[in-house]
């Protein structure tokens, strides 16, 4: 009984991070941890601090000066810190210094991540009861067993959290996300991509009541990735925009229910957006581009790939008002022609990356406008552009010397044209489907 009571107060086993058949638990290594496999699940025990013993004579602890010079980015990851804590009592105390735990990173589909987070945060809260004041980043992407319980643990224990990534954790819901953004006021980076139950980002009702009518500005999120949150609708986007007014990076890839109306809400509240993706949002049209154009010179990155309702009209809105655009992905927007490329090239002369693949109405004429205006172009994708020939490529290569990537797969271009590009753009990597060109 006494042994069991000691275990509940101590070090998380590395088995919380890795199942028994992982490399760290093969060939007898890691045998000091208590773990067992039951019906394919890892059952991790929590151990007491190891007894004090002499460290290995070849192991030297860093001096105070060396510690001050250490690069925080080189700290061991979560699983290695847990293993270090098993070496001896001194290493145990060093490994659990809260200053080493600015980041928790857990990976794996089978890991019991809810339990792992509970044990880790409980240990890190011992010096500052109930809160982990040093923890700023939690990354549990791909941990499919994460549930609302795990997010509640983070919300309750990590008030200084700045970055949370739960990509692919499809069991979490709006309520748990609301708790995190309400109890972690410094949260700036949130990745809930692939979390299909998440349809909104908002403060909890209790938190909203305590704040002023402008409580939406209390959410400090700047980076929000909701890729593949395919249940998100315009009303949800309206709520997100009203609460997250400081957004600078927003990714809505494959949020297929979003329409131009949702983008109108977004532009009312979020006027600082620099990067925006609405790729594969098939209901977004030229009217949506008119709304996005209200970002004007602040917009640097835009992805509208496979938005089939966007034509030259929408491109003209962007080109006219967003003159500092650096990246545009318009792949699969089959309504774009040489006229749209002309508007873009003449107004967005600082363009560095352009993808107009699968735009069959873009020809060598459009490439000529690019070549004569966008000298800083570094990446150009023309994949499956049926109207492109070697002549257009040669014009681009003769003017855009800094070109680093060119995709002409499934284009009817000659070997001579590809060799011309290679001669003029020395650093260019050419992706092609011409077997005669090496």
From TrEMBL:
Looking up InterPro entries in the UniProt record yields:
F-box-like_dom_sf, F-box_dom, FBXL15_LRR, Leu-rich_rpt_Cys-con_subtyp, LRR_dom_sf
Q: Which SMART domains match?
A: LRR_CC
Pfam short name (any one): F-box-like
**GO cellular component term of the entry, any:** SCF ubiquitin ligase complex
Q: Where is the composition biased (Polar residues)?
A: 1-13
Q: Where is this region: Disordered?
A: 1-38
Record keyword Transmembrane present: no
| GO BP annotation list | SCF-dependent proteasomal ubiquitin-dependent protein catabolic process
Superkingdom of source: Eukaryota
Ranges for domain F-box come to 74-106
Keywords (alphabetical) are:
Leucine-rich repeat, Ubl conjugation pathway
Q: Where is the F-box/LRR-repeat protein 15-like leucin rich repeat domain?
A: 244-423
Q: Does the keyword Acetylation apply?
A: no
Name the record gives this protein: F-box/LRR-repeat protein 7
């Amino acid at each position: 009984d006494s042994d069991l009571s000691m275990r509940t107060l101590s070090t998380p086993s590395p088995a919380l991070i890795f199942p028994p058949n992982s490399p760290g638990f093969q060939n007898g290594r890691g045998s000091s941890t208590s773990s067992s496999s039951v019906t394919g699940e890892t059952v991790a025990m929590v151990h007491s601090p190891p007894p004090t013993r002499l460290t290995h004579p070849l192991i030297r602890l860093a001096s105070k000066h060396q510690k001050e010079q250490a690069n925080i980015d080189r700290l061991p990851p979560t699983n290695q810190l847990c293993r270090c804590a098993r070496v001896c009592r001194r290493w145990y105390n060093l490994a659990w210094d809260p200053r080493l735990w600015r980041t928790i990173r857990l990976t794996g589909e089978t890991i019991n991540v809810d339990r792992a987070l509970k044990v880790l945060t409980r240990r890190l809260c011992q010096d500052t009861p109930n809160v982990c004041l040093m923890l700023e980043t939690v990354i549990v992407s791909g941990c499919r067993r994460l549930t609302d319980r795990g997010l509640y643990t983070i919300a309750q224990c990590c008030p200084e959290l700045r970055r949370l990534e739960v990509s692919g954790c499809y069991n979490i819901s709006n309520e748990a996300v609301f708790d995190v953004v309400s109890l972690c006021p410094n949260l700036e980076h949130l990745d809930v991509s692939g979390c299909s139950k998440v349809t909104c980002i908002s403060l909890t009702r209790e938190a909203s009541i305590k704040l002023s009518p402008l409580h939406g500005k209390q959410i400090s999120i700047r980076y929000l990735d909701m890729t593949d949150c395919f249940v998100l609708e315009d009303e949800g986007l309206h709520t997100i925009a009203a609460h997250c007014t400081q957004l600078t990076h927003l990714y809505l890839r494959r949020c297929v229910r979003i329409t131009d109306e949702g983008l109108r809400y977004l532009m009312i509240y979020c006027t600082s957006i620099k990067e925006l993706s609405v790729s594969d949002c098939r209901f977004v049209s030229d009217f949506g581009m008119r709304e996005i154009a209200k970002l004007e010179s602040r917009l640097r990155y835009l992805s509208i790939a496979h938005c089939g309702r966007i034509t030259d009209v929408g491109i003209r809105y962007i080109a006219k008002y967003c003159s500092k655009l650096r990246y545009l992905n318009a792949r699969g927007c089959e309504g774009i022609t040489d006229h749209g490329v002309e508007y873009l090239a003449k107004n967005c002369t600082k363009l560095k990356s352009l993808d107009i693949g699968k735009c069959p109405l873009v020809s060598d004429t459009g490439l000529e406008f690019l070549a004569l205006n966008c000298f800083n172009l570094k990446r150009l994708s023309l994949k499956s552009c049926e109207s492109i020939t070697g002549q257009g490529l040669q014009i681009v290569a003769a003017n855009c010397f800094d070109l680093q990537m060119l995709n002409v797969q499934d284009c009817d271009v000659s070997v001579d044209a590809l060799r011309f590009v290679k001669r003029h753009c020395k650093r260019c990597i050419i992706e092609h489907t011409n077997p005669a060109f090496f």
